[in-house]
Write a structure and sequence with these properties.
With 261 residues, the protein is of the alpha+beta class. 49% of the residues lie in helices and 13% in strands.
């Protein structure tokens, strides 16, 4: 396919990943309809819209966002906005910088990330807990665009010392997911967490109840005051069900939990 064509959902979806055996990092395509709108395709197959332009004689480039999270129509609209600014002798990258500086990590987490997580992640409550307890206290007042890979790495090392490698890796997964979304939404040029290494985790140790321990364990469960918790533990023990499946009963209103069980 020619590297210059009219962008459409079908043609972009059909583009293959950049050849992994070539020394270049990505393939760049140009939109025949909107001059300056580019699409770069990585070796991993990810596709990002960019606007290439000149300002004061210098070549410049702004990342608009990742396809399909940013539509072709929105990408073209953004390029037209940039051209309107250029016509007024305003560099769009200056506007981007000013807008990025308005977003502290706390604001990004609470106003953009968490609403998205609630809609798309079953484990959003775990994310909220991690953010409230550790991440926002560490990064809350930082400008999102000012957080570096070193900042992220230092934070994760602190979590490893405070808890364990496994927990630190869970925080790494959260940070990577958040910053990737910030890139997709055009808030950041690149993620400061993309090159973070995972800590080596200790092998998990599985422990099973013995015949002698099972009656004692059930007696201890019977002493619990919460009837829902008591029933959930028994279901886990006797069915081998997943914890997440059992915890769906959290959606039952508290006043009905006992009778539902």
């Amino acid at each position: 396919m020619s590297k210059r064509f009219r962008f459409s959902k079908h043609t972009i979806e059909a583009l293959e990943a950049h050849d992994p055996d070539t020394p270049s990092r990505e393939t760049e395509y140009s939109d025949a309809e909107c001059f300056g709108l580019k699409l770069r395709v990585s070796k991993g197959g990810r596709k990002f819209f960019q606007h290439r332009y000149r300002y004061m004689g210098r070549k410049k480039c702004l990342t608009i966002g990742e396809f399909p999270y940013v539509s072709i129509q929105d990408a073209r609209r953004k390029v037209h906005e940039h051209k309107s600014l250029l016509a007024k002798d305003i560099d769009p990258s200056d506007q981007r910088e000013q807008r990025s500086n308005d977003w502290t990590f706390r604001k990004f987490a609470n106003e953009l990330y968490l609403p998205h997580a609630v809609q798309h992640k079953k484990t959003w409550k775990e994310d909220q807990y991690k953010l409230d307890r550790q991440v926002i206290p560490a990064f809350g007042d930082y400008r999102s665009s000012s957080i570096t890979t070193r900042d992220s790495s230092t934070f994760l090392s602190t979590q490893k010392e405070r808890t364990s490698s496994t927990t630190a890796n869970h925080y790494a997964t959260l940070l990577k997911g958040m910053f990737n979304l910030a890139v997709k939404w055009g808030l950041l040029e690149k993620s400061p967490a993309s090159r973070l290494d995972r800590f080596k985790e200790k092998p998990r140790r599985e422990r099973y109840l013995t015949k002698e321990e099972r009656p004692r364990f059930l007696n201890a469960v019977e002493e619990l005051d919460n009837g829902l918790s008591k029933a959930a533990i028994k279901i886990l023990l006797f069915t081998g069900g997943r914890r997440g499946e059992i915890e769906r009963t959290e959606d039952i209103p508290a006043e009905h939990q006992e009778q539902e069980v």
